[in-house]
Amino acid sequence: MKVAGLLGLLLLISTFPATGTDVAASEALAAARAKWNASAIHSYEIRFRDEACFCLFGPYYGPIRNVVVRGKLHVSYYEGERRDGYSHGRRVHIASNLRATVEDVFSRVESLLATAPEGAYRVEYDPTYGFPVLVDFDDPAMDDEQWRLVADGFKPMSARR
């Protein structure tokens, strides 16, 4: 009886989608991070937006332009339509996933690859610098559990700023 129960449990576990096992995605992430690290860019501007957010507050879906100096988030600006007390160019101080550095987004991708079901996400990387330009997640098993982070407007800058 114990063997049959154990076999049943193993069969049940094997029917759930595996997480953290997408070798191709892990290899793509490692190659992209190596390209980013080789670029040795620590000061830059980048804009993030969430195209799948059902958010009710502008800074949560953006776009938000981030100024990163020596690897640290220096300042963020809202660049979307006038809404929720925000207009184009207003500084954003509140916590938002869009107020991020490239390293923050790499960390988010690592977490996604380690925990999300294979096939529930798609990640694309910049061909020149390697940073994530698209992180698309939609878990079909969960309602309202989707987001689509898009990066654009990347501009390397001198660290003196």
Compose a concise summary of this entry.
This protein is an alpha+beta fold.
Description:
- The chain is of the alpha+beta class.
- It has one domain.
- Helix content is 27%, strand content 27%.
- The chain has three helices and six strands; from the N terminus they run ααβββαβββ.
- The protein has helices spanning 2-14, 23-39, 102-115, and strands spanning 44-50, 64-69, 72-78, 121-125, 132-138, 146-156.
- Strands 3-2-1-6-5-4 form a six-stranded antiparallel β-sheet, covered by helices on one side.
- Strand 4 (121-125) and strand 5 form a beta hairpin.
- Helix 2 runs antiparallel to helix 3.
- The longest helix is centred in the first third of the chain and has 17 residues, at 23-39.
- The chain is flat and about 45 Å long.
- The relative contact order is 0.21.
- The model is unreliable at 1-20 (pLDDT under 50).
Name some characteristics of this structure:
disordered N terminus; 161 residues; flat; 27% strand; single chain; 27% helix
Poorly predicted runs? 1-20
Described by its quaternary structure, the protein is single chain
- Report the strand count: 6
The dominant shape is flat
Which structural category do the helix and sheet elements fall into? alpha+beta
Strand content: 25-35%
Q: Which sequence of strands runs across the widest sheet?
A: 3-2-1-6-5-4
- Main sheet properties: 6 strands, antiparallel
Helix coverage percent: 25-40%
C-alpha Rg (nearest Å)? 19 Å
Task: Tell me the count of domains.
Answer: 1
Mean pLDDT value: 81
Secondary-structure element string: HHEEEHEEE
Euclidean distance between termini CA atoms: 70 Å
